[in-house]
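Researcher: Quick one. two chains, 1196 residues in total.
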Amino acid sequence: MRSPVQQYLESIVDQCNSGDGEVAAYIPELAAADPDQFALALATVDGHVYTVGNAETAYSIQSISKPFTYALALSDQGFEAVGRKVDVEPSGEAFNEISLASDTGRPKNPMINAGAITASSLVSGDSGIHRFTRVREWFGRFAGRALELDESVYTSEITTAHRNRAIAHMLREFDILEGDPEETLDQYIRQCAISVTTQDLSLMAATLANGGIQPTSGERVLEATYVERVLSVMATCGMYDSAGDWISSVGMPAKSGVSGGIIAVLPGQAGFAVFSPRLDPHGNSARGVQLCERMSGDMDMHMMHVGRMSNTAVRARYPLSELALRRARPEADQAVLDAHAEKTMIYELHGDLLFAGAEHVVRAVVNDAPDLAIIDVRKVDDVADVARVTLLGLRTMLREAGGEAAVVDPEGVMPDPDAGTQKASPYFDDLDSAVRWCEDELLRQHGREPAEERTLVDEHPLLRDLTPQARKVIDHHIEEVHYQAEDIVLEAGGKFAGVHLITSGTAIASVEGPGSSRVRLVTINPGTSFGELALGTEGVQETRVVAGSDLTVLRLSAEAIETITAEHPDVGLEMWQAMTRDAYRVADRALRSGITFG
Amino acid sequence: MRSPVQQYLESIVDQCNSGDGEVAAYIPELAAADPDQFALALATVDGHVYTVGNAETAYSIQSISKPFTYALALSDQGFEAVGRKVDVEPSGEAFNEISLASDTGRPKNPMINAGAITASSLVSGDSGIHRFTRVREWFGRFAGRALELDESVYTSEITTAHRNRAIAHMLREFDILEGDPEETLDQYIRQCAISVTTQDLSLMAATLANGGIQPTSGERVLEATYVERVLSVMATCGMYDSAGDWISSVGMPAKSGVSGGIIAVLPGQAGFAVFSPRLDPHGNSARGVQLCERMSGDMDMHMMHVGRMSNTAVRARYPLSELALRRARPEADQAVLDAHAEKTMIYELHGDLLFAGAEHVVRAVVNDAPDLAIIDVRKVDDVADVARVTLLGLRTMLREAGGEAAVVDPEGVMPDPDAGTQKASPYFDDLDSAVRWCEDELLRQHGREPAEERTLVDEHPLLRDLTPQARKVIDHHIEEVHYQAEDIVLEAGGKFAGVHLITSGTAIASVEGPGSSRVRLVTINPGTSFGELALGTEGVQETRVVAGSDLTVLRLSAEAIETITAEHPDVGLEMWQAMTRDAYRVADRALRSGITFG
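Model:
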């Protein structure tokens, strides 16, 4: 099948076919470029690359190197040391302006040549060549492959770099550059002559879009805090003296180069690269700008585009009383729970929790003022620090009111800072376990002893309505069986082995999940039963049931059921009627649990 | 309960207590301000306002008026007419620089005084006073209440506005201003003297954060495309000559005013306002800047902060074969479906669908290459245009391969542009109906006539395993009943009325939802049954069952079941055993439908 994303990219390339502009001519290597070459590449943050045109053609990176060298300088020296040498103010000036602050000599930003040469000098290394080697390897980590120098571009540029040489010496005069300015100039010219393809550039951009993690290698190349800084500077200063126009019309952090490339970053989503050598009067690729404007307009890519993220954090919110209960509690306990389950609230969260999402959750809980809250973060992808702190505040608030928050978080997206201490919150791998914990809490609060202490099987629907005669016959066939924690009681695929009523301990039913994982379906408590579902699946047991602790069951085996039915048809009829009612009770509850009101 | 969000805001106000800076002194009304006044307000995009300090204290809006007047000029005149008079380039200069382009005289941006005065002149109106009245009412629509002029501030400023008077006349000289510059100056000084509270400013900012819709009134004040422009200009030019520092350290679109206010916008999430009259050397509130830096750092509010949005679009993805089927198909049809259900895929989407999310969906579908796809967008909040177009491309792609996409979209978040035509996609209000449509398609493709055409009850689990003698007794008690579409067959709350086997037509089971809505649970097809679940709920029918079309059922009534059990115990036993097996079959399938592997 042909992807509509691919089709879309091809269609806009057809439509944005500006032939305006002139190829850069100041060195023969650039002047010789075929002006009609074209490539577009889009790399997603998980490393899928779409291309149109010849995205494997190589050319010199030129000024697109600037944000990446600035990133390396930040990574090597930190914000403060770099900030002493180069500012982050938009200059509103052309790329080749000298633009030093009249008092300090500090270049206005690292996207103009003066600032970029300064950033190159801030890379750690013993010599210009050592620093260049580190820059080349650094770029390769963003691209996901080793990159090489284009010697002929370097040789050509170094001989005609009069303006950059003037800038370097001026920077030395102000002590912005230290050491030999010719060495730094040589390093900078080499850096601009690193050979890249459009596909490389799209992955370099996607690394920034992905918060500093290279999409294909999975390597963290740049710390997130430096990614923010680099993107900020690209947004305000990346497109030379048309930065304001760019930010208004395209609205993505971007950087262009004189060889005809442009990269643009859609944070969290994708990196783009376009290559077309004809330049507009600002020195940006004319067709590249046209394509970026088109994509931004079509694709809501403007960074100031307002989505509705804030309303999506709470996926579902309901009291325990509305949770479809899964055959887990004896009826008498259930009555207590039914009477008090309104004040236990379940909050299912999803998506990325940013400030507004966490605020929404907090507001919901403040409004509900529950005694107990279950925060289910299984569908949450990422939790911003602010959201984590805010949700911890929620726990404190609940505790001050005498309550508690239980958390369902098998993947640890929201770790408890108090884990392992007295202050730890109850954390669970599945909602069922969290619900069981809350129910036990409620039962304790309302004077019911824990279920393990009582004899509950008499209350079981299979037994409670039997006539005394029938009960006597059945009791005669029931046997008590003991298991130790972790024992497999029933294996998936086995034959129907009878009805098992738990008198003490718990059992856990699970099925195979993806791979060789196991998905826990339900914890089965004293007073409830298991095994009988196999009657509905051609007599085949479909889940594995394991003892969750030391476990005692009363078993009415399949053979016993057969014997009773054959020898005491009247008791058999009663027994099957009881089983029918129990089965439809289970079915009804399970069907209800599938209801969504959302 | 005390909200942790409120607690957090109070704690950072305590910690960010800079007493640096001086109150603006150029007019007595500002010089007289108590330098230690303080207020913070945070307004969410759904209109909840948190405040610390005295957020009801009024002061003159001053330069915070600039983005809102620029918004009105854009709204009145459009991008092009406004763009001819004022540019959007960062100036990197102080607020009171004259900063006109040397060639055209055009101010660099609408956040410096020259650009702001120009923007004021572009508001539609017959006179300066008329234009001012429109500006005042416009600001009130952002604040959610009528605003007034502070006459004493206006009177004081107009007499000492020498620099702004010079700017206005210079703008007139270049024909940037048309008409009387004194009239525009008067209008501009009045605009700066509009009286606002910190709470007002937070709601004005939240209106921008909310894409132009005022959070409390719900009124669309500004078109989304102009919101993007205004936020872009605030981001690059809002904080005078420290715009670059601001965008690097705080990273939110913002605007400050000389009376000590700052607004900041977190797109999609919240608007902030801070008020503290002591100003730093750039003319921005010193404590305000300190607080904004702190909040941005704590709260991941930097606009270049990279989340992981792109991975959250596909909530679940599974073949029809893994959908827990809900007692809907006769077994023979089920066998056909089981054999072919791998090539029908269900994609449950959620969150806001931006480009990357839609691309993810497309990639999943291209990879799966299903014959039929169900796209379930019930949990999707917002669909960006690009996502809509991309998902439509998906449909085209599936059709070219001989397939189709069915859409579950009860709220119309992704309307079909071909609705009502031959090219329309099948749209459904619930997943169950979409699944039924796909199943019918599959059955047709594989040579099974639609179920309505055949006699299916013999295949029903309740009847198929009976001995001939038992079947004969039961047949004697079965009665055929007809209903018309919309007839209520069983009412919720009624007594168990027996087992109903559908021979033709469909029935729909539903329960009450929130309010007086009804939630459809399942469509019941020929060859399947309903009514027997009441046996599991103390003999009470808990769903309403309505004929979905002309409907014929074979009914084995509650009385008939009782009679058979009493008069033919052997047949009764067989019947109850069959019911038990059927019930556990239903229970098993329903329990499985609650499994999530996510």
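Chain B touches chain A through 132 residues (CB under 8 Å).
Researcher: Thanks, that's what I needed.
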